[in-house]
UniProtKB/TrEMBL annotation:
Keywords: Leucine-rich repeat, Repeat, Signal
Gene3D superfamilies: Ribonuclease Inhibitor (3.80.10.10)
UniProt xrefs under Pfam families: LRR_8
Regions that span the bilayer: none
Protein name, per record: Tsukushi small leucine rich proteoglycan homolog (Xenopus laevis)
Signal peptide residue numbers: 1-39
GO CC annotation terms, alphabetical: extracellular matrix; extracellular space
Keyword Repeat appears in the UniProt entry: yes
Keyword Nucleus carried by entry: no
C-alpha cells in the first residue's frame, strides 16, 4: 500500500512539473507574440518591420524597417517603431528634404538611413539634425547639386553615398561638422564633378576612403590633409598626371587610376609621396604606352601593380630595385609576372643559402 502511495505521489509531482513547464512555455510564447504584435502595431501599414534580437538571452533588440516604393502620396514623417535602427525610405519621390520630414519617435535611434532614388533636389540645413546616432547614409540616385555646410552637423557618420547625383563642385569640408572623429568613407562616383576641394582651415577631417570615379575631372584633385587609405579616380578625362599630384597622402594604401581613356603620360616621381601604397591599378589605359623607371620611385611598399589592358607591354630592367616589395605585376591582356626567389648555393662564410630575387612571367620574351 505504501508503495502504491509513493508511486501516486511521484506521479502527482511529475504532473505538476509538466503543468509548470507548459505554463512557462505558454507565458514565453505569449510574451513573444505580444512583442511581435506590438512591433507590427507601431509599424506603418505600408512598411515591413522586422525585430532583430542580440546579446545574452536576446536582451537587446532593434528594428529594421522597410518602407521602399510607397510612392509620393504618403506624407512624412512615416510612423515607425520606437527602437528603429535601420530605415529604408528609398524610391518614394520625396523631393526636397525639409526639416520636419525625418523627425518624431523612432528617428532619433537610427543607425542607417536609405534615401536613395527619391528625386531629392535639396536638403534643408537641419533636415538631418535629429539623427544623432546615424552612421550610414545613402543619398545616391537623387538630383542633388549642392549641400549646406552644416548639413551633417553633429552626426557620427561612417559611410555616406552621394553617387549618381548632379554635383559639379564639391568641398570635403562639408564633413568637418560631423562628430566623433571616426573614419569616414565617401562615395561621389557617377556625378558631374569638375572640381573637388578640401578647405580645412585647421580643422581635422578623418576621411579614409573616397570614390571619385566616372566624373569630369581633368586633373587629380588635391586631397592634401586627408588621411586617405583608398582613392578611386577611375573613368575620368585625365590626360596627364603630374608630379606632386598625390602630395601628403602618405597613408594611402590603394590607388585606382583605371579606365582613364585620355591618359597618355605619368610624370617621373608622381608617386614618390606614397611610401605606404600597396596596390596601384593602372589598367585599361589604352593611350598609356610607356612608363619611365622614375615613375615608380618611392613606391617602397607596393605589392600589386595592374597594367592589364593598357598600352604598356614592357617594364624597366631595374624594376625590382624600384619596387622592393612587389609581388605581382599584370601587363597587356593576359601577361602576369610575379616575384620569386632563385635558389642559390650555400655560402660557407656566412653560413646560409643566398637567394636571388627575380620576376617571372607566364609569357616568354617580356622585357623586365
Amino acid at each position: 500500500m505504501n508503495c502504491m502511495s509513493e508511486l501516486f505521489s511521484e506521479e502527482q509531482s511529475k504532473s505538476k512539473e509538466r503543468s509548470i513547464m507548459v505554463l512557462l512555455l505558454w507565458l514565453g510564447l505569449s510574451l513573444l507574440l505580444a512583442e511581435q504584435s506590438n512591433a507590427v502595431r507601431n509599424c506603418h501599414p505600408s512598411c515591413h518591420c522586422e525585430v532583430e534580437s542580440f546579446g545574452l538571452f536576446d536582451s537587446f533588440s532593434l528594428t529594421r524597417v522597410d518602407c521602399r516604393g510607397m510612392g509620393p502620396s504618403f506624407s512624412m514623417p512615416i510612423t515607425i517603431p520606437l527602437d528603429t535602427a535601420h530605415l529604408d525610405l528609398s524610391s518614394n519621390e520625396m523631393g526636397p528634404l525639409s526639416d520636419a520630414m525625418l523627425t518624431g519617435p523612432g528617428y532619433t535611434t537610427l543607425i542607417s538611413l536609405d534615401l536613395s532614388s527619391n528625386k531629392i533636389t535639396k536638403i534643408s540645413p537641419n533636415a538631418l539634425s535629429k539623427l544623432r546616432y546615424l552612421e550610414s547614409l545613402d543619398l545616391s540616385y537623387n538630383k542633388l547639386e549642392s549641400l549646406s555646410p552644416s548639413c551633417f552637423s553633429g552626426l557620427p557618420l561612417a559611410e555616406v553615398d552621394l553617387s549618381h547625383n548632379r554635383f559639379q563642385e564639391f568641398d570635403m569640408a562639408v564633413f568637418a561638422a560631423k562628430v566623433n572623429g571616426e573614419p569616414l568613407n565617401v562615395d561621389l562616383s557617377q556625378n558631374k564633378l569638375v572640381s573637388v576641394s578640401t578647405t580645412l582651415h585647421g580643422r581635422v577631417l578623418n576621411i579614409q576612403s573616397v570614390n571619385l570615379s566616372s566624373n569630369q575631372l581633368v586633373n587629380v584633385p588635391s586631397m592634401a590633409g586627408l588621411p586617405l587609405r583608398y582613392l578611386n579616380l577611375d573613368a575620368n578625362p585625365i590626360k596627364k598626371i603630374k608630379k606632386g599630384a598625390f602630395a601628403q597622402l602618405k597613408e594611402l594604401v590603394y590607388l585606382s587610376l583605371s579606365g582613364l581613356s585620355e591618359l597618355h603620360e605619368i610624370e617621373p616621381h608622381t608617386f614618390s609621396d606614397l611610401q605606404n601604397l600597396q596596390v596601384l591599378d593602372l589598367s585599361n589605359n589604352s593611350n598609356l604606352k610607356s612608363l619611365q623607371p622614375a615613375v615608380f620611385s618611392g613606391l617602397e611598399s607596393l605589392q600589386e601593380l595592374n597594367l592589364s589592358g593598357s598600352g604598356v607591354t614592357s617594364l624597366p630592367a631595374n624594376m625590382l630595385s624600384q619596387l622592393p616589395s612587389i609581388k605581382s605585376i599584370t601587363l597587356g591582356q593576359s601577361i602576369h609576372c610575379w616575384r620569386t626567389q632563385k635558389q642559390g648555393q650555400f655560402h660557407r662564410q656566412i653560413g646560409q643559402v643566398q637567394h636571388n630575387e627575380e620576376l617571372h612571367c607566364n609569357v616568354d620574351g617580356i622585357v623586365l
